[in-house]
Design goal:
The complex is a heterodimer. Chain A is α/β, with parallel strands linked by helices. Chain A has five helices and seven strands. Chain B has helices at residues 3-32, 42-51, 60-81, 86-105, 110-141, 146-150, 161-174, 202-225, 231-251, 257-282. Chain B is built from ten helices and no strands. The chains are: A alpha/beta, B mainly alpha.
Chain lengths: 143, 283
């Protein structure tokens, strides 16, 4: 089993879902793929397919319209999986918390493992959060 | 070399080399883009991780298709190392490719369907070129059998240079590198989500990746066959082809199906036809 754990740590594939974000956190997240931060050196690949991903990275607050979509994407991912909430809107609802259509942070719909606050969250913080998520992924599969 | 050694070479050693080549491919692509890139062993980490995930399949036919694809790709490479008949090897490889498409077609998701149909168009583009390459070898040596082709003594590249250029197109389409990555693109690039591979996950995606290594090594083997008996030149030519594909991948964009058909027939088929006609009339 040690070999599989090594492989899981070295090859975390992520899917990014924007739940109604202003795109600030999305841009910071996608800039992690650029040569300045280059997360592919950790083996991280942004696959768009939930069936092939280990880490679900969500930005933006959940609203009544996309809460079912978020649950659907989470359910399509095979185990083991972790969820990272990037940005304060995904963590708690942020500045839009009291809006009539906003449900709140994504932990109201799916279980979240790592919270990365910020508005927008900086790429360094996002990479830190995903590194924490990779460690949690290894813990989950060992359990 | 005994048959057993050849079988082990084809079944185990060559796909590992194929995986390393894909790892070097990703590293080189990253360096060309000014990044560091993943470690060279990354494809093996990916495959191991995929095997360890929960098995989710949409239907059983899809699962059977993946096994057939892996089996036929492995069989075609083993037949190649056993110096069997080249025409049969190409058809065995095609069985696997067709089953990959049919497995994707068995899923009712839009991405799979369009990706599968694009993969059929890609097969329509490279299969005639590959058959013409084999036919060129037959015209020069009188046989499809690899053992007899290797007994020729002179390298095939002397009489078939244009067909070696056609292999560049075939390799580009089969490896799904830009500008031919229409049906399912490489890691980190998305085309119709993952196109053909959208509904494959976990262990089944790992098997598709391993089958891709077998296919890659088969095509590189056919390219290296052009230079036999100078095996070192053959290996150098195979690596040069890979480097050329990576370069083309990084400087071109994804184009359309119409363009791919037009290019592979307008350039590939014409080059192959010219070479075969010249060889035919010189005999």
């Amino acid at each position: 089993m040690g070999l599989f754990d090594l492989a899981r740590k070295r090859s975390p594939w992520l899917i990014h879902y924007d739940c109604g974000s202003c795109n600030g956190c999305d841009i910071e997240l996608l800039s992690c793929l650029t040569p300045l931060y280059d997360v592919e050196r950790f083996g991280i690949v942004n696959v768009g397919d939930p069936k092939q991903a280990d880490i679900l990275v969500v930005t933006g607050a959940v609203n009544q319209q996309n809460k079912d979509v978020l649950k659907n994407i989470y359910d399509q991912m095979p185990n083991p999986k972790v969820v990272v909430a990037v940005g304060v809107c995904a963590c708690t609802g942020g500045i839009f918390r009291d809006c009539y259509n906003v449900v709140g942070g994504i932990d109201k719909i799916i279980p979240v493992d790592v919270y990365v606050p910020g508005c927008p969250a900086r790429p360094e913080q996002i990479i830190d959060g995903i590194k924490l998520a990779i460690d949690k992924l290894a813990e989950k599969s060992a359990a | 070399m005994t048959s057993l050694v050849r079988i082990i070479l084809g079944l185990i050693v060559f796909p590992v080399i194929g995986g390393l080549i894909i790892g070097i491919d990703r590293k080189l692509t990253a360096r060309l883009q000014g990044r560091f890139g993943p470690p060279i062993l990354q494809p093996f980490y990916d495959v191991l991780k995929l095997i360890s995930k929960q098995r989710l399949a949409v239907n059983e036919f899809q699962v059977m298709s993946v096994f057939i694809y892996l089996a036929s790709s492995a069989l075609s490479l083993v037949l190649f190392t056993l110096r069997s008949d080249l025409l049969m090897i190409i058809f065995v490889m095609s069985i696997g490719a067709v089953f990959l498409v049919v497995g994707a077609l068995s899923v009712k998701s839009a991405y799979s369907q369009v990706g599968a149909q694009r993969e059929l168009m890609q097969m329509l583009s490279y299969e005639p070129l590959l058959i013409l390459v084999i036919v060129g070898m037959y015209l020069v040596t009188g046989s499809f059998n690899i053992g007899i082709i290797m007994q020729r003594g002179k390298p095939l590249i002397e009489e078939l240079p244009l067909l070696f250029l056609v292999m560049i197109i075939v390799l580009g389409i089969k490896m799904r590198k830009s500008p031919f990555d229409l049906s399912a693109s490489e890691h980190a690039h998305q085309e119709l989500v993952r196109g053909l591979l959208t509904d494959y996950s976990g262990a089944y995606l790992a098997m598709i990746e391993i089958a891709h290594w077998y296919d890659l090594m088969l095509l590189l083997g056919i390219s290296a066959l052009f230079f036999y008996p100078y095996t070192v030149w053959g290996i150098i030519s195979a690596l040069a082809l890979i480097a050329l594909e990576i370069l083309i991948d990084n400087v071109t964009a994804r184009l359309t199906v119409k363009w791919m058909l037009g290019y592979s027939y307008g350039v590939g088929l014409v080059l192959a036809a010219i070479n075969i006609v010249i060889v035919y009339f010189l005999r």
